[in-house]
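Translate sequence into C-alpha cells.
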Amino acid sequence: MKYRISFICDESDTFRRDVLIDEEATFLDLSNIILKACGYPDDQMTSFFMCTDSWERREEITRMDCRESGVDEDVYTMADTPLTEFLDEGVTRMEYVFDPFNERTFSLRVMGEEPGHGEAEIIRSEGKAPQQVCAFDADAPLTGTTGDFDFSDDFNDDSFDAGELDPEGFEVSENF
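Result follows.
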C-alpha cells in the first residue's frame, strides 16, 4: 500500500502538492520526496511534527539526533523512523519544517491509502513552491527591542584606573 499525502503552505493559496509514498518508507524518504516536489536542495535541518486534529504539535522527528549524550528521552530520527510507526497509529496531520531558522512549515494531511508499492511519486503539483529559505536582511531594523540602549553610564573610561590592576593577581589557565 501507499499513503497519499497532500501538503500546502499558508504563504500561498495556489500551492499544493500530493505525493504517493510506500507504507514501508521512512520519514527521510518522505522528506526527500517533499524536497523534490518543491525543487529544494537537501541542505537544511528539516523536521516533522506529528499533530493532533486541531494541529497541535506532538512528537518531533528530526533530521539527526542532536541531543546531548545521557539525555533520557525518546528521539525520533527521519532515517530510523518508518512512516507506519505514526501513520498506522491514526496520525493524519503533520507539519514539515522546511525553513528551520524562520520556522516556516508545510501542513501535511494523510488523505488515505492506495494500492501499490515502489518509489515515491509526485501525483499533483499546483502553484509555485515558496522560496525555501528567507534571506536575512542585515539592513532591516531589528524588531522586538525597546529602543536604543545607552550603556555609557555602565562602561565609561573615567572609572578605570590602570594603577589598581594587579597583573600578578590573575592566573591564566589553559583548562577552562
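Note: Confidence is low (pLDDT under 50) at residues 142-147.
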